[in-house]
Amino acid sequence: MRYPRDMHGYGPNPPHANWPGGAHVAVQFVLNYEEGGENNILHGDAGSEAFLADVVGAVPWPGLRHWNIESMYEYGARAGFWRLHKLFTEAQLPVTIYGVATALMRAPAQLAAMQAAGWEIASHGYKWVEHKDMPPDIERQQIAEAIRLHTIATGERPRGWYTGRCSLNTVDLVSEEGGFAYISDTYDDDLPYWRVHLGRPQLIIPYTLSANDMRFVTASGFGNGEEYFQFLKDSFDCLYAEGKAGSPKMMSIGLHCRLVGQPGRYQALKKFVDYIKGFDKVWIPTRLAIAEHWAREHPYVAPEVVPSDLDQAEFVARYGSIFEHSPWIAERAWAGELAPANDTAIGLHFALRTQFRMATPEERLAVLRAHPDLAGKLAAARRLTEASTAEQASAGLDALTDGERARFTELNEHYVEKFGFPFIIAVRDNTKASILAAFEQRINNSAETEFATACAQVERIALLRLQAALP
């Protein structure tokens, strides 16, 4: 009953990126070099390529070559690459290459130009093929072979990785390889983050398919260069404004030689490059530079506790008293669907609160009755739980005058006689005076209204307790 997807991430308060120079946004250009690494029976594949080319709706041809699509990929190598190379070198902008290993082995001139420009060359896998059905052992072998060929071609092993057409196992397998400063096979954030696999943190730098020129050849994508430019501009303007307001982010832009390298599309990219050069406080790095910056500024810090990772005994020991003397709520929450979203105070409160709300009226009444009287006999005898003691002290209920104590005693007795459970209020939200005022007002409620009010206060007390224990 553990849901592995992280639907919380950084939540409403992401870390401040602290980009170099106080930049409001980091804009990162990726050029995918896949030409010569795509599906082709010449490469030992079962059929022709059908993905990301200007034959929309193409399907693989088993056992055959597809001359038209082959030549479209060749355009990327022969013409598109050099057009983009000229743009970025003349603008003196760094680029990250996602290089398919077998494509790099067939591109000596392009590779030399990449290296002469000082571009980062990350790995884009062994071949530009689909991995979704690939057995883990085969994919692991292909990761190793990609690293081997990449090292032969470039003279050094890659420090960044992006498969693209990945499997459910890809990020885990690349993390296990252990030699990468970052992995980019996710699209789930505007900032890098640490992902723990088998006890080891791996930096993830999310990529993009929205600000990606692949949308020129996909349904509901860019119909022309102006649409592409407008999307890039709007994305940049939004992120720049957020950064100026104090929350800097990252903008990834994915490019392909055979797609945006076409003249009509290229003009939109050039227009965007010219546009962002008119702004200050814009950092344009490689992905490796982002990884190195993040590792310095935001190194991995292991959390003190990850609730969804705990076994039942530890989970109940830690959270069984969040709802006063009612460990069964924690037991049921642990047996339910916990996920990374439940590892914060709000998330764990939701899981516990859900079990409280799903309980029978009799079970919920038992939780209410488990709470002590405010400033009552248990407090006088110092027999409250540690949490209740601290809570009552926070509102000064441990230092009452004789008159105040007499009034609380009178109200407690009247309240319990009427409702059958003690008066409950989140004292950390209140003062002694406001508690007395609420007591005197609520004692006039109907039984149904007061039961609902008391249950809501029990939930509020639980949240405050968790906020003191978790981030």
User: Approximately how much helix is present in the residues?
Assistant: 40-55%
- The oligomeric status of these chains comes to single chain
In angstroms, what is the radius of gyration?
Answer: 30 Å
Query: What class would the helix/strand composition place it in?
Result: alpha/beta
Distance from N terminus to C terminus (CA atoms, Å) equals 23 Å
Mean pLDDT: 93
Strand content: 5-15%
How does the overall form come out from the CA principal axes? Answer: elongated
Number of strands: 9
Describe the sheet with the most strands: 5 strands, parallel
- Unreliable segments of 5+ consecutive residues: none
Q: Quickly count the helices.
A: 17
What is the string of SSEs from the N terminus onward?
EHEHHEHEHEEEHEHEHHHHHHHHHH
Describe this structure in words.
The chain is an alpha/beta fold and about 475 residues long. Helix content is about 45%, strand content about 10%. It contains 17 helices and 9 strands. The strands form 3 sheets. Strands 1, 2, 3, 8 and 9 form a 5-stranded parallel β-sheet that branches. Strands 4-5 form a two-stranded parallel sheet. The model has no long low-confidence stretch (mean pLDDT about 95).
